[in-house]
Amino acid sequence: MAKRRHFTPEFKAKVVLEAPRGESSQAEVCRRYNLENAASLFESRDKPSQNAAERIAHIEQLVGRLTVAVDIHEKALKWVSEKRDPDTQDGKSSSE
Q1: Rounded-to-integer distance, Cα 46 and Cα 92, Å
Q2: Alpha helices in the chain (DSSP H)
Q3: In angstroms, rounded to a whole number, what is the distance separating the alpha carbons of residues 15 and 32?
């Protein structure tokens, strides 16, 4: 069984910041520093972000539906209020 290597925080920061700059792909960085299975670390992080994007889309749809429901209820409340007191229109009473 191979001995596990330990890396300094400085080395980790250097490697992590190298790929996003666009100079090298993740695979090239892994080969350059002789890192094994490092690509799988990047891939596993994509799945939660995809789930998060799906969850955000679902929540946005829900907010849209609830906004429409609130608008309908506000209009219905205004209509019922006007039917009960025909003298009141646009929130102004006859005593004003």
Answers
A1: 56
A2: 9-18, 26-32, 38-84
A3: 10
Report how far apart, in Å, the C-alpha atoms of 71 and of each of 29, 78, 83, 87 are. 54, 11, 18, 23
CB 70 within 8 A of CB 76: no
pTM of the model: 0.41
**Cα–Cα distance, 68 to 63 (Å, whole number):** 9
Tokens of 11: 């080395």
pLDDT tens-place values along the chain, 96 residues long: 567 778 888 888 887 787 777 777 777 888 888 887 766 665 655 566 678 888 999 999 999 999 999 999 999 999 999 999 876 555 555 554
Alpha-carbon distances of 45 from 15, 29, 38, 39, 51, rounded to whole Å: 17, 18, 12, 10, 10
